[in-house]
User: Fold this.
Amino acid sequence: MSTLPSFRRLAALRVCIACVVSGCVIAPAPRDRAAQGSAPDGGSSREASPTSPQSIAPAPTPKPSSAAKPGLDRSGSKQVGKASFYADKFTGRKMADGTRMDPRDDNAASKTLPLGTTARVTNLETGRSAVVTIQDRGPHVKGRIVDLSPATAREIGISREDGLVQVEVTPLSIPQADGTTPGGAAKHDNTGSR
Assistant:
């Protein structure tokens, strides 16, 4: 039986549980290192075996920046799907890029296009289009590909009564993971847009 006071045993148990839950690997005690071939002075007298904790533990990976997030579409491909528009309650709220949502601006939200992307959104029922800048993430409703500011929604013919419209989103300029912004699939012209 250990001579440690109960609060120390409890603290040690909590640390062990936290390590197991978080996936940490606990380094072997000094007596175990000697059995694995480590010299008592901390140096290693042989390489770690492929099954030792040192070779199994994954190296820490840095958190990806917003420009390098997985799942973002930088291909410049057109997307077709439903568009909706921001509800009034989102006016003035911070968007994903840190700016405030202005219902009179050309801001939009996409789940897959990188922030800062400029895209043409075309209402497939009316043929009307507008150029938007992706500044937010969303829409957070299944089956929708873009949320538009109320002004942009009106511009392409989405009324509050309609709510949803089938649209085509054509990226014009897409920020790349390295920070550059080459053109997208189409040339940026002002025909039929703002």
Summary: The chain has two domains: 6-56, 69-173. The chain has a mean pLDDT of 76. DSSP finds four helices and six strands in the chain. The longest helix spans residues 6-22.
